[in-house]
């Protein structure tokens, strides 16, 4: 009897443990953000005659916007446009292999407090651009240039003065800081939030999910960072102190739906909510550009509802949300006083333009 009782207890323990392991991640609550205020934004066109690629950054400086985009009119990477009337002013930033040139400007960080642009190309060559000099048309706008000895494979690298913060890296740590020259790893952050049982059980797949589907933004004073995922939507806020990253909070808004045929490469199910596509940060707020719908298979911009811009404070609380009738915002930036949003827009007919709307 005692042996039978022991076996029964063992079986019950195994079943309960198995059930707990199976359901712990899947019981995590995913709740769409709920905003106390919602505004229908009316976008005003500034210029619909700019012939350029979709900007991957919009940087605001006084009365101009600097668009990180290629143009049909010149061979520079940064296009300067007036915020008063949208007219093209000038361009700077050669693409090439020469001194103080980069082959690409994919890894780009704009320090609005100091008006510096920090960029790294795919070969690890790095430059710092003094934006004030560039706007004055001076040739000495590149104030520093160096070659990193090791190419860091990260989504973005943030400039922290005498350190670099590398975000969403693979196969090394998720976040890590190095000396400014890229040598000497100073701090590492390895953790990922619990998402789903499948992603929790398959670490490499989870790493690839965050690396491939994350957007981030750093607070202007460089003390906090927000990371938002697409294909589902998880928002995390981190503290940064002396180059060390620490988790502050995580919100789970939309559960990632996973094709479980591959345990290493994340394959999102076609029924996934699109989720986050850009994040922007000011001193007061986090701005998240996101879709809360599944993307249309055909004619995406005509048949998919436009994205929203959700506004959160740095405690992760919902503040308000901006919605749009027909236009899809592709890239945006917010003035430091949180009064106006400038954006690159594509309408349902596939026409692109630079515009703005006022924030309430």
Describe the structure.
With 360 residues, this protein is mainly beta. Helices cover 13% and strands 43% of the residues. It has helices at residues 2-23, 131-135, 197-201, 203-212, 300-303; strands at residues 38-40, 44-47, 57-61, 64-68, 76-82, 88-94, 107-111, 116-120, 125-130, 142-147, 154-159, 163-169, 175-179, 185-189, 214-218, 224-229, 233-241, 244-254, 275-281, 285-291, 308-313, 318-323, 328-334, 340-346, 352-358. A hairpin with a 4-residue loop joins strand 7 (107-111) and strand 8. The longest helix is centred in the N-terminal third of the chain and has 22 residues, at 2-23. The radius of gyration is 23 Å and the shape is globular.
Strand neighbour order, sheet with most strands: 1-22-21-20-19
Contiguous uncertain segments of 5+ residues: 1-23
Mean pLDDT: 89
Shape: globular
Order of helices and strands: HEEEEEEEEEHEEEEEHHEEEEEEHEEEEE
Rg, rounded, reads 23 Å
Class per helix and strand makeup: mainly beta
Percentage of residues in strands? 35-45%
Number of helices: 5
Number of strands: 25
């Amino acid at each position: 009897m005692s042996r039978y009782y022991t076996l029964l207890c063992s079986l019950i323990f195994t079943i309960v443990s198995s059930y707990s392991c199976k359901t712990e991640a899947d019981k995590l609550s995913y709740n769409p953000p709920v905003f106390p205020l919602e505004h229908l934004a009316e976008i005003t066109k500034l210029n619909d005659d700019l012939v350029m690629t979709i900007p991957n950054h919009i940087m605001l400086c006084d009365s101009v916007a600097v668009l990180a985009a290629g143009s049909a009119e010149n061979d520079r990477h940064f296009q300067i446009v007036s915020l008063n009337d949208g007219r093209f002013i000038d361009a700077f930033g050669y693409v090439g292999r020469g001194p103080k040139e980069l082959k690409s400007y994919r890894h780009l960080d704009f320090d609005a407090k100091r008006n510096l642009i920090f960029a790294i190309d795919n070969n690890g060559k790095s430059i710092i651009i003094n934006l004030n000099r560039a706007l004055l048309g001076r040739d000495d706008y590149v104030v520093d240039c160096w070659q990193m000895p090791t190419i860091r494979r990260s989504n973005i690298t943030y400039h922290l003065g005498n350190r670099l913060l590398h975000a969403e890296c693979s196969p090394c740590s998720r976040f890590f800081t190095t000396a400014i020259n890229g040598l000497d790893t100073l701090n590492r952050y390895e953790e990922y939030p619990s998402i789903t049982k499948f992603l929790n059980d398959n670490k490499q797949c989870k790493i690839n999910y965050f690396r491939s589907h994350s957007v981030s933004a750093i607070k202007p004073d460089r003390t906090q960072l927000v990371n938002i995922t697409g294909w589902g939507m998880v928002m995390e806020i981190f503290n940064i102190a002396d180059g060390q990253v620490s988790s502050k909070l995580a919100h789970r808004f939309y559960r990632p739906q996973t094709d479980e045929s591959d345990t290493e490469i994340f394959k999102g199910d076609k029924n996934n909510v699109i989720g986050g596509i850009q994040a922007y940060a000011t001193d007061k707020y986090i701005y998240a550009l996101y879709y809360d719908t599944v993307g249309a298979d055909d004619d995406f911009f005509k048949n998919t509802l436009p994205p929203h811009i959700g506004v959160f404070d740095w405690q992760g609380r919902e503040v308000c949300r901006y919605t749009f009738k027909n236009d899809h915002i592709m890239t945006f930036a917010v003035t430091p006083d949180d009064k106006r949003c400038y954006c690159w827009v594509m309408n349902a007919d596939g026409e692109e333009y630079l515009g703005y709307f006022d924030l309430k």
